[in-house]
Amino acid sequence: MAHATPTARAVPRSVLVLGAAIAVELLLLGGYFMVTPATVTRPRYVLYPFVWINVVLWAALRTRPGPTTGRARLVGAVVAVGYFLLLANWSGLVGLTVTGHHPIAEAQLGLHIGSGSPGWERVRLLTRVFYVSFVPFRVIGYVGLAYLVYAAVADATSAALSGAIGLFSCLSCSFPIAASMVTSVYGGSLTLVSTVVAYSVDLSTGAFLLSVALLYWRPGFPGNGDDPT
Predict the structure, then answer these.
(1) Which residues, at least 6 apart from 92, have a Cβ–Cβ distance to it below 8 Å?
(2) pTM exceeds 0.85
(3) Which residue among 72, 73, 96, 191 sits deepest, i.e. has the most Cβ atoms within 10 Å of its Cβ?
(4) Taking the CB of residue 154, how many other CB atoms lie within 10 A of it?
């Protein structure tokens, strides 16, 4: 009597990519603390960049827009780009140079590379008109959020009117825009009470995770286009 041979279940792509990312992150962390005199005083700040990267990577890999039209994809792309630029500006990654009454010294202009544990390195380009500041985990996180917004907008634009009255009537689509403003506390020029400032990175991480969760699951939104792979 023949017996059926059990077939091995394929490992989801999102799991493979996330596992590879975690392995690389562990190597980067281990290498950094081996070759530098830096010590860990607050472990959560060392890990926060990888929390941002891994969570948004997992959500983006598992999210696919449903069947959409060319118009829906275009609308989604425009909204996503605007969303990314807003987050980048609020968090101090891009903006116009404000000099006040004193011009910027020539030595401050140009490209500057800062130090920090993996994920925290800051590369800053400063001109007399604008500045661009590259912080790896924030850039990756905001790009991931922008993709989730693209998927949400594309689905909303293609959905029947009864299923999606509009993007900003959907809590999971509109709330992340407001919640992500918390990220401007760190890296921006806002001054709040000392308690909030002391936990600004924690608050921004919480707002980011909530934004990813709402954009991924989209409570009350029909069909979020999840890709199970």
Answers:
(1) 133, 184, 187, 188, 189
(2) no
(3) 72
(4) 26
